[in-house]
Amino acid sequence: MNRYALGVEYDGSHFHGWETQSNGYTVQTCIEAALSQVAAHPIKTICAGRTDAGVHAVSQVIHFDSLVTRKSAAWVLGSNTHLPHHVRVLWARPVADDFHARFSARSRHYRYVISNRPIRPALLNRQLSWEYRPLNVESMGMGAAYLLGKHDFSSFRSSRCQARHAVRTLHRLDVERHGELVCLNVVANGFLHHMVRNLAGVLMSIGAGERDPRWAQAVLEARDRCQGGKMASPNGLYFMGVEYPDEYAIPRVPPPQWV
Fold first, then answer.
1. Which one from 52, 174, 212, 224 is the annotated catalytic residue?
2. Residue 9 near residue 59, CB atoms below 8 Å
3. What domains can be seen in the chain, in order of their start residue?
4. How do residues 214-241 score in pLDDT, each as one tens digit?
5. What is the pTM of this model?
């Protein structure tokens, strides 16, 4: 068997999420079908981080095993020939047998992008979240500071989350404004189901003046999802990339300027 790693970008608004489902159109189904065409045998993939319906990826990383040997260009060009236009393989490379897209990862990076203006955007409306009330990014940043570090994030996990425990280490959570766009950058060693969208929901409530920044700490300490407020839309959420040990030489893809 040969093991390969691939970098993939996709527009999640076309899919019912990453993971193969019996009754939904998913990214994994498309990718595996395309790779199977190139390999001439069935391919099964494992990704760095499963994304929900409507969530996009700038640099998702996957790995798979194949009976055949192909050049990197063959995996990239061949797969893209069989993929819909809203999914693209960016790079491919052979990796060591011990590489695992999920378990070898040291950290994962998400970005949440909000259109903050009175009128809902017509352009990129499925690639941006929207908040009509002016957001105070300074207050949001103060709230975010309470969430950094190693904590039990039970208040920020979905009731359907299958993780064995809710302890995660949040390395980065900052808030930036670029004109009418407000961006949340989130880096952690791992994420719970709906964790980023729930973090965004809490910070957006703070930014809109509904809550004091200290409310973020109160939500965290409650360890109760019912205390966490409204979950943010998936539209503005992007899986940006993954950090791996240098020994695997996994490429790092710079994000497009509009994300």
1. 52
2. yes
3. 2-104 (3.30.70.580), 107-239 (3.30.70.660)
4. 999 999 999 999 888 889 999 999 999 9
5. 0.94
